[in-house]
Amino acid sequence: MKDIPKEDPEEVERKKKRQERFGVQSEKEKKVERAQRFGLQNSELDKIKKSERKKRFGGITGNTEEESKKIEERAARFGLYNENQEHQKQKERKERFGVVDPETEKEKKMARQDRFGAK
């Protein structure tokens, strides 16, 4: 077995003083700090930025009934897109023009070709 060299007590004391002066950082913290300083991409940095943004603007939440009512009222007031209105328009169009059946469309095309001559 090899003997493990023991550190000099003065050396240990100097390291402790340096840590007190400059602080102790893990390798991960050093990488994040370097990425921030030089504008590099880092997954840890991205997580930090996202958490800060979430604190500033609030997280994404599901629509409650109250929020959905507000959204509908706003859409009605400003004439914005509304899913219910869109479905209603589609339903009215189907009633007005009928549902398109591919077989009947094919028959209509054949009859038109016969009448006007196929080229």
List keywords for this structure.
119 residues; mainly alpha; 6 helices; THO1-MOS11 C-terminal domain-containing protein; phosphoprotein
Secondary structure layout:
Layout (H helix, E strand, L loop, with lengths): L8 H14 L4 H12 L4 H15 L7 H14 L4 H15 L4 H15 L3
Word description of this protein:
The model has no long low-confidence stretch (mean pLDDT 81). The relative contact order is 0.04. The chain has helices spanning 9-22, 27-38, 43-57, 65-78, 83-97, 102-116. Helices cover 71% and strands 0% of the residues. It has a domain at 15-53.
Low-pLDDT stretches are none
Determine Rg (CA atoms, Å).
35 Å
Major sheet: none
How helix-rich are the residues, as a percent range? over 70%
User: Which sequence of SSEs, written as H and E, runs from N to C?
Assistant: HHHHHH
Q: What's the tally of helices?
A: 6
What portion of residues belong to β-strands?
Answer: under 5%
Inertia-based shape: elongated
Computed structural class: mainly alpha
What average pLDDT do the residues reach? 81
Question: How many individual β-strands?
Answer: 0
End-to-end separation in angstroms reads 96 Å
